[in-house]
Amino acid sequence: EVQLVESGGGLVQPGGSLRLSCAASGFTFSTYSMNWVRQAPGKGLEWVSYISSSSSTIYYADSVKGRFTISRDNAKNSLYLQMNSLRAEDTAVYYCAREAVSPLDYWGQGTLVTVSS
Amino acid sequence: QSVLTQPPSASGTPGQRVTISCSGSSSNIGSNNVYWYQQLPGTAPKLLIYRNNQRPSGVPDRFSGSKSGTSASLAISGLRSEDEADYYCAAWDDSLSVQLVFGGGTKLTVL
User: Fold this and answer.
1) pLDDT of A10-33, one tens digit each?
2) What pLDDT does residue A101 have?
3) Does A109 sit within 8 Å of B102, measured CB to CB?
4) Whose CA is closest to A87, among A68, A103, A69?
5) Cβ contact A102–B44 (<8 Å)
6) What are phi and psi of A106, to 5 degrees?
7) For residue B58, what pLDDT is reported?
8) Which pLDDT does position B15 carry in this prediction?
9) Nearest by CB to B99, which of A59, A102, A107?
């Protein structure tokens, strides 16, 4: 069974940093591209970043470019999102999702990031 | 302001057929596949339709997708109370840089 479990969320002050992790199991992680998607409270979905299976291709949303860094460790079956210079508008539930027939085939349950002083 | 445009709300009675539209442009829907996701209250989104009109295993055939030009639509026939959810369309956009864009979401209410 495919499982994606996010962790690392929490309360952080504006300008601060946070690193999210996504632990994958139930599939061969190293062969799948992955995405991060976020959802602000009461709002719609917003794609954040994409990374290919070998990390050779990476994309970012304009809203996070230069502040967020996506990475992965295939040996540890883990996906990461390093978030720097956080702003209030980055407050959201962050989901990791696996790409297969669609960019977001399977989703984790999400981890809440709150940026506030 | 979402890149893809969806109606904010839709509604229907049990057994009815409802459709949700998704409008984009040549750089997203016009040249790439459309995906639909269902988000039940308090849960993570789930894949509903891929490659414009394909259903993953386990998704009832009451759900169907279509695409024409720069627009797409999701149809739900035989509406059931458990279909009450938020629905999002998505597509890759390759205008300036490659980005995955979403519609703003449509809240479906089963009356």
Assistant:
1) 999 999 999 999 999 999 999 999
2) 87
3) no
4) A68
5) no
6) -125, 140
7) 93
8) 97
9) A59
| Residues B60, B80: Cα–Cα separation, whole Å | 11
Q: Could you write out the DSSP letters of every residue in chain A?
A: --EEEEE--EEE-TT--EEEEEEEESS-GGGS-EEEEEE-TTS-EEEEEEE-TTS--EEE-TTTTTTEEEEEEGGGTEEEEEE-S--GGG-EEEEEEE-SSSTTSEE---EEEEE--
**What are the chain A neighbours of B32 within 8 Å (beta carbons)?**
none
B64 Cα to chain A: minimum distance (Å): 16
Q: What are phi and psi of A90, to 5 degrees?
A: -85, -5
In whole angstroms, what is the distance from residue B38 CA to residue A61 CA?
22
Band of the pLDDT at A59, cuts 50, 70, 90?
very high
SS3 call for B57: coil
Residues of B in contact with A106 (CB under 8 A): 47
Segments of chain B with pLDDT less than 50:
none
Residues of A with CB under 8 A from a CB of B: 35, 37, 44-47, 50, 59, 61-62, 95, 101-110
Evaluate whether A5 touches A23 at the Cβ level (below 8 Å).
Answer: yes
Q: Write down the pLDDT at residue A103.
A: 86
Q: What is the pLDDT of residues A68-104, one digit of tens each?
A: 999 999 999 999 999 999 999 999 999 999 998 888 9
